[in-house]
Amino acid sequence: MTGKTRKATFNLHTEVIEALDEAVQRGESRSKNALVERALIKELNELKRKIRGSNGSMRHKTPCFAQICRKSNPVSRPRMKKPPGVSGNAAPTVGGGRGAP
C-alpha cells in the first residue's frame, strides 16, 4: 500500500505484542507496522466479504461501508452509470438495434 501514513495508538495484550516481536525477529515481516497493517487489511477484506455475502442487508448498519471498501481495496472502482435507454445487463447495440446492417 502506498501513500500517506498516520500514527495510530492501540492497546494490545502483552502476548500479542510478544508474538508480533517474535514474528519480526524471525523475518516474517519487515516491521511490526507492516505486519499489523497486513493483518488489518486482511480482516477488513473479510468483513467486506461478509457484508457483501449478506446481500447488502448489513449495509444500512454500516454508514462507512463504501469508505471501508475503498480504503481496504484501493483498486476497487465505483460502478459506472448505465447510459439512458439501457436496461438490465443488455449491451447497447451498434447501428440502431436488431436487423440493422
What layout of secondary structure does this protein have?
Elements: H1 14-25, H2 32-53, H3 65-72
Helix pairs in contact: 2-3
Mean pLDDT: 74
- Major sheet description: none
Residue runs with pLDDT of under 50 for 5 or more positions = 89-101
Radius of gyration: 22 Å
Subunit organisation of the chains: single chain
Structural class: mainly alpha
- Strand residue content: under 5%
> Could you estimate the helical fraction of the residues in percent?
40-55%
Query: Overall 3D geometry?
Result: elongated
Distance between the termini: 49 Å
How many helix segments? 3
Total number of beta strands: 0
* Secondary-structure element string: HHH
Describe this structure in words.
With 101 residues, the protein is mainly alpha-helical. 42% of the residues lie in helices and 0% in strands. The protein contains 3 helices and no strands. α2 crosses α3 (65-72). The longest helix is centred in the middle third of the chain and has 22 residues, at 32-53. The chain is elongated, with a radius of gyration of 22 Å. The N and C termini lie far apart (49 Å). The model is unreliable at 89-101 (pLDDT under 50).
Summarize the structure.
The chain has three helices and no strands.
Which descriptors would you attach to this protein?
101 residues; mainly alpha; 3 helices; single chain
